[in-house]
Amino acid sequence: MLGVGKDKVIMKKTIITNGQFIIWNEQHPIVNGCMVIEDNRITYIGTEAPLPLEQYDERIDGTNKLFMPGLVNTHCHAAMSLLRGYGDDLALQVWLQEKMWPMEGKFTAHDVRWGTELSILEMIKGGTTTFVDMYDHMNEVAQAVERSGMRAVLTRGVIGLCPPEVQDAKLKEAVQFARDWNGQANGRITTMMSPHAPYTCPPDYIEKIVQAAHDLNLPIHTHMSETAREVQDNVDQYGARPVEHLEKLGVFARPTLVAHAVHLTDEEISLLQKYDVRVSHNPGSNLKLASGVARVPELLKRGVKVSLGTDGAASNNNLDMFEEIRLAALIHKAVTGDPVAVPAEEAIRMGTLEGARSIWLDDVGALEAGMKADFIAIDIDQAHFFPKTNYVSHVVYSASAKDVTDVWVDGKRLVKNGECLTIDEEKVLAEAQRCFERLTSA
Amino acid sequence: MLGVGKDKVIMKKTIITNGQFIIWNEQHPIVNGCMVIEDNRITYIGTEAPLPLEQYDERIDGTNKLFMPGLVNTHCHAAMSLLRGYGDDLALQVWLQEKMWPMEGKFTAHDVRWGTELSILEMIKGGTTTFVDMYDHMNEVAQAVERSGMRAVLTRGVIGLCPPEVQDAKLKEAVQFARDWNGQANGRITTMMSPHAPYTCPPDYIEKIVQAAHDLNLPIHTHMSETAREVQDNVDQYGARPVEHLEKLGVFARPTLVAHAVHLTDEEISLLQKYDVRVSHNPGSNLKLASGVARVPELLKRGVKVSLGTDGAASNNNLDMFEEIRLAALIHKAVTGDPVAVPAEEAIRMGTLEGARSIWLDDVGALEAGMKADFIAIDIDQAHFFPKTNYVSHVVYSASAKDVTDVWVDGKRLVKNGECLTIDEEKVLAEAQRCFERLTSA
What we know:
The structure is a homodimer. By secondary structure, the first copy, chain A, is α/β, with parallel strands linked by helices. Chain A has two domains: 3-69 and 364-420, Roll (Urease, subunit C, domain 1); 71-358, Alpha-Beta Barrel (TIM Barrel). Helices cover 38% and strands 23% of the residues of chain A. Chain A is built from 15 helices and 20 strands. Chain A has helices at 92-104, 109-125, 138-148, 164-181, 203-216, 228-238, 242-248, 266-274, 283-288, 296-301, 321-336, 344-350, 353-358, 391-398, 425-441; strands at residues 3-4, 9-10, 13-22, 30-38, 41-46, 58-61, 65-69, 71-76, 128-135, 151-158, 189-191, 194-195, 220-224, 256-260, 278-281, 306-308, 375-379, 404-409, 412-416, 419-420. In chain A, β9 (128-135), α3 (138-148) and β10 form a beta-alpha-beta unit. In chain A, α2 (109-125) crosses α15 (425-441). The radius of gyration of chain A is 21 Å and the shape is globular. Chain A starts with a strand and ends with a helix.
């Protein structure tokens, strides 16, 4: 807002002219023209400016730029970027137990702060405007999100492999965090409750977390069916595959987002559909950890909401959401032998609109009057965007994080000509490096 | 060369200081220090400068840069970038017969020139220093390569689905091209002979091409076993799968590079190994066209030389070789369930050293005294390269074409701080666009 007049709040009006805008219209996905942003909302998109240009507070020339909704990363552990490249090419359980958990056990709030800032810097410059984060020391994460200007859905992921009093303390902390931060940062932060996974939380602990989610009226986020081994272990230990197990524990009575969901039977897909459980597909991480290839075409066919996540940078190893969009469009074609499995239009929506819908953000993820102004600009005056044919195809099959020049979240410009306006980049890189060195020297 | 003295040619001496250099030493893959280039060769790499710095004609500060061998793209049809985004999400045969071939039939030499320039621009700025190109109007391609300063192995790909006199004319043209250009552009261009594929060339025509390759003493490059349908068609038509078929036709009596090789039996892998046939693995294209996933781990285990190619931009859709390296490292892990299938070290070599070896360039692909000075610099002062842990991992799992800041080929700097010094970028983009518009309006 620019200021307050006698009777009303005066909104800042910005117009982008001469741009190309991706909208969710299958026949005509590109608007050549203008977009107007007032305060934190898009109020107009069309070929002609609705008012004379001098009536706008800010005029931005969109020539040679492609505008699209900001990318939505629905599964991340931002602080794990401190472990990027630390322990590659290992199976999930070995990687977790021998590499990640011992190092993460040493993480202080200070480490989480700088690991998260490192990830936010990478995500924001690469066009991600919203991310889901499940981790520990979440106050640090929330503060970093608040400072950065990004949008996030945050949750303290709890692992229940510990004595009951430690379980209780963790749950109390998770509840406190979820209550304190839900709706904060001008509504940019919302929260969820998270049992880390069926294999890291005893059933009675999961039930307690579900009850807390009911009490707070919040959704649940959890890892599920990431590896074949995890599924088999679940059957051996609890006599049921993870989907049935979580259903019995009442998890799906809450709105739920599950990450991975690689190993599913037809019956399990039906259950997910029945409960409107949303799936965060993490193709990069699933490939790297050799977890397998999720049954995304079947999930989509059955109407399950599928979005995309990077997972943490330790198993990806970057946070480039364009890459996840591309992998989602590419791998299912080869694995199913069907060249129209997950077409480009579907993949780009999974990385934007479906991402927002999957995390209950109903006014994010589209360039459309009334939607929150979370959007990005891509420099299309480059060889890999020529010829100027199908820009949805070019974004899905050819773009990368580094093509992003400008980013707006909630109507505020966070990246301008490739420079992040809200983060001291040099300091973040140096501090993250210092954390890593301390962690590995100890 | 700077000039010619009384008795000898005076070489230009360049030193890069304060750099980090990737070398092919598994235990110690990074040298922190200096590299010296004299004329077109690397003459030194080590921690200390061999001479006082003032004795070098050019001194380059390598701070915050990672230097590595230039990327080698072993299968491309550069001019097809004109068809980027034109006909996505289709099966190979439909895509070829209904989209690509009708449009390519209209390509003039002018189109091939600008399509190739567009691809060269994208490749060179993205760190590719050598590429294999199989296409038509190859004089245009060779001239574009010569002007750009890149290294290339070029071949007129011939399709024999035409009357004998047309076949003969094509072969004659291919022979003429191969003879004219082999060793040209200071040796930066070498040539091969190419039957396009077993499914596009009758057996007797392939035999004639093989004979020509014998006469010219040149290697052979061909598409092979890209789709299951092609393999089955080959069995139906000729009573043999493609590998046995090509063996019978004498192809493998010549040094041979085959592209794709997705559908192979164990026996076929043995045959490829026996004849030292090199495989250009094109993961991006194979995924996009739903061709399948090549048996790369098995090929590597059996000692077959495997390199990486983008294929044309119409089936990829970019020419980012970092992406091919990453896909090669990622997809085989998930498909085989083995998290160490194609480790990072193997993938980066496939995109560089093994690429050069696969196309008979024995002094390209390594930062090592005596090797040709084909190398690139990457800006590692960015979030996705932190923490500074394992740079081979960071390149494979986190880098992209846009991270490349500088490129040298044959000792000559072609890209400086992201600007291509040998190509008029604006003109190339405009001309390529014009060609596309003419082709689609006709």
